[in-house]
Amino acid sequence: MNMNLQQQTEKANTAVQEKSKEIRTDYRLGYHIMAPANWINDPNGLIQYKGEYHVFYQHHPYDENWGPMHWGHVKSKDLVHWEHLPIALAPTEAYEKDGCFSGSAVDDNGILTLIYTGNIFVDREKDILDQSQCIATSTDGIYFTKEAVNPVISKHPEEGSGHFRDPKVWKHADHWYMVLGTRKEDIGKVVLYKSKDLRKWEYLGVLAESDGTEGYMWECPDFFEIGGKHVLLFSPQGIEADGEKYQNLFQTGYIVGDFNYDTLEFSRGEFQELDYGHDFYAVQTLLDEHGRRIAIGWMDMWESPMPTKEHGWAGALTLPRELSLTPDGKMAMNPVSELELLREKSIDLSIDKLDSESFDTGIREDLLEIKVDFSLKDVTADEFGLKLRCSEEGTEETVVGFDVTSSKLFINREKSGKGVSGVRKSKVELKSDTLTLHLYLDRSSVEVFANDGLNVMTSRIYPQTSSLGLQFYAKNGGVQIKDLNVWKLKDIWKERE
Ligand code: FRU
């Protein structure tokens, strides 16, 4: 480990530890990845290394607001129980003086290698940046050394600009490949590189770029094969809202296509959103030893209200989700099966037919998993669903519902508590007459996996600690429930204390 890096990470660890003693726990999550205190954003360096899952994240250890980026670090044997590790990276060198930005990790013959962006603000007001790509290595998976060859890519290609960041690296045949996000004027793009040794990189060209309507900057790209196709995941900035689509400040989505490693051509389809909730960005994936493509995103959105800041922390990552591609080119996301380990106890609840505008289940919990299958065969209601974190007097609730006439799933945050509001909708293309809903509630987060993972919504909510009710409802008619299961979930962070 470099001397300076050791000093800076130790200082940062101490700052976070100190701050963690002061944070308020009202909105703290029970089973999601968070820092012990202060700010986090993108997931970084997702990898299964020596049998354990490692997740790093963009972290500002000194404040609950974004600032000079460090890399925080957690690991897990089962994708459920996470353990905090010392901060892995701190900005110490001239080429990264304004932060160690997002990037990825690879296992290079037993050496855990992080590939990340060194950030320099040339003129912050005018948004002029000078970004380069760097590497840091570790043999124990905990302490890292920044290599003397840094930066390994010091300048952006002609087709890009100083906005040149978020390297995602993978191996194909006997070469490493890297995708990076960049922009030229107002066209967002992803560029491609190749290397034999992770240190010398050859520029191969533009993999894909905006057609003029798909954003001015493409952040956090990821590129992989799935279901016989190649998928480019990325987070574009600057796509205009279009009806119910692209409602958040920035988007995260994918394009499906075919890629040929010889000609380097990527014939691509259209951009599609991956998650339709209020809070999902900068997703990254890993391929694990079971061949699963697992995605984790940042469970917040730039510039959205984050009332947790007053409590000494901000930001969390989503649950790990397994990706799959349908034959018609749609990405499905479902919670990884290991999450069943979170179930503390099954709660007895039986509803065969729902025909009440407000059915109180009697359940009062803030850590829940709910699986429910609605039969749409003889549905007469024009809307149905459930309400989470309801207050006793009815002023607070978060509604997850289905509008039968328009076939839209929605999440309504108008009464979800402090700071937040707004409705998000997602068109459901049903394959049968059953609507499946799989929902995770974790105090200040809701993740809904509907229609077998084809309609996913992730949103943060900030109700009062006393708002704990769970209700079901159907409007102007009824709906049959085929199957219903509710579990109270564990708090993995409290278990560790
Ligand atoms: C995405 C992003 C990345 C960048 C990082 C900085 O949310 O803007 O492009 O590397 O955050 O924290």
State Rg: 22 Å
How many H/I helical runs? 2
The secondary-structure class comes to mainly beta
How far the N terminus sits from the C terminus, by CA atoms, comes to: 29 Å
What is the CATH class name of the largest domain? Mainly Beta
Give the beta-strand count: 37
**Architecture per CATH nomenclature, i.e. the level-2 architecture of the largest domain:** 5 Propeller
**Biggest sheet, open or closed, and with what strands and sense?**
7 strands, antiparallel
Number of domain units: 2
Task: Provide the CATH topology of the largest domain.
Answer: Tachylectin-2, Chain A
Give your account of this protein's structure.
The chain has 497 residues and is mostly beta strands. It folds into 2 domains: 3-335, Tachylectin-2, Chain A; 344-496, Exo-inulinase, domain 1 (Jelly Rolls), CATH 2.60.120. It is 5% helix and 50% strand. The chain has 2 helices and 37 strands. It has helices at residues 3-20, 492-496, and strands at 38-49, 52-60, 70-76, 82-89, 100-108, 111-118, 121-123, 128-129, 132-138, 145-146, 164-172, 175-184, 187-195, 201-209, 217-226, 229-237, 253-260, 265-268, 272-273, 281-287, 293-298, 313-314, 321-325, 331-335, 343-347, 353-354, 359-364, 367-375, 383-390, 398-403, 408-412, 423-427, 434-442, 445-450, 455-460, 469-475, 479-489. The strands form 8 sheets. Strands 25, 26, 28, 33, 34, 35 and 37 form a 7-stranded antiparallel beta sheet that branches. The protein has a 6-stranded antiparallel beta sheet with strand order 27-36-29-30-31-32, with no helix packed on it. A hairpin with a 2-residue loop joins strand 1 (38-49) and strand 2 (52-60). The longest helix is centred in the first third of the chain and has 18 residues, at 3-20. The model has no long low-confidence stretch (mean pLDDT 97). Residues 41-42, 58, 69, 101-102, 117, 165-166, 219-220, 281-282 line the site of beta-D-fructofuranose.
